[in-house]
Specification:
Blueprint lengths: L3 H19 L7 E5 L6 E4 L7 E3 L6 E3 L3 H5 L3 E2 L2 H43 L6 H14 L2 H14 L8 H41 L2
Antiparallel strand pairs: 1-2, 1-5, 3-4
Helix pairs in contact: 1-3, 3-6
């Protein structure tokens, strides 16, 4: 169980490092030149300074200004740059989900380990059948006078049926610790499976 925790942390560091490397990718610089006739923005590069381009909207020939004027125009995002930003946003979302699921898995395993320790340390005092057998053996060895006194005391004081015996309370407590440990371990394993699924989806998207 504890081997999963360092594996999750290592995958988390790898995902964050890959996202950081992608953020430093550079792209070609393009500027937006408005058409002199319809004001439609045309994407141009500094290497086209002095050339003439045709507006795809109104078919007007537009002269591209000098390099100094081009540098003052607003920048245009290249198609691959837009795709890169979309990809980075997708990876960022996958990383956030992966981190959340990793924390849930770690918390689940820690709770399961704690409850498992408490379950193992809780003694097992026996069952109801064993308790009845012990009472029968005990009453069989007692003299008749002592049995009559106990009977009269029970008739006078009454029998508290609502209060369980000590062995029963301890058995119920042991069972509760075991149930909590099992549920927590199940939640941790489910979070691990889903986290690895998101990591696989992120890697598959990154290779496209």
């Amino acid at each position: 169980m504890w081997r999963v925790v360092p594996l999750l942390l290592r995958i988390l560091v790898t995902e964050n490092a890959r996202s950081s490397r992608d953020s430093f990718k550079s792209s070609s610089i393009m500027h937006l030149l408005p058409c002199s006739n319809c004001q439609n923005p045309l994407s141009i590069t500094p290497s086209q300074a002095g050339d003439i381009v045709t507006c795809p909207e109104c078919q007007t020939e537009v002269s591209i200004p000098k390099l100094g004027v081009i540098r003052q125009l607003p920048l245009a995002e290249a198609p691959h740059e837009t795709d890169s930003k979309t990809h980075q946003q997708s990876e960022s979302g996958v990383s956030v989900v992966f981190v959340g699921l990793g924390l849930i898995a770690i918390a689940g395993f820690m709770v399961a380990a704690f409850c498992g320790i408490r379950w193992s340390l809780t003694p097992n005092l026996g069952t109801t059948d064993q308790h009845i057998a012990e009472l029968r053996a005990d009453y069989a060895d007692k003299p008749s006078a002592e049995l009559i006194r106990e009977y009269e005391q029970m008739v006078g004081d009454g029998i508290e049926l609502g209060k369980p015996f000590t062995y029963k309370r301890i058995a119920d407590e042991k069972q509760r610790w075991g149930q909590i440990a099992g549920i927590s371990a199940g939640i941790g394993l489910l979070a691990v499976v889903v986290a690895f699924g998101f990591a696989a989806v992120g890697r598959r998207a990154g290779t496209r």
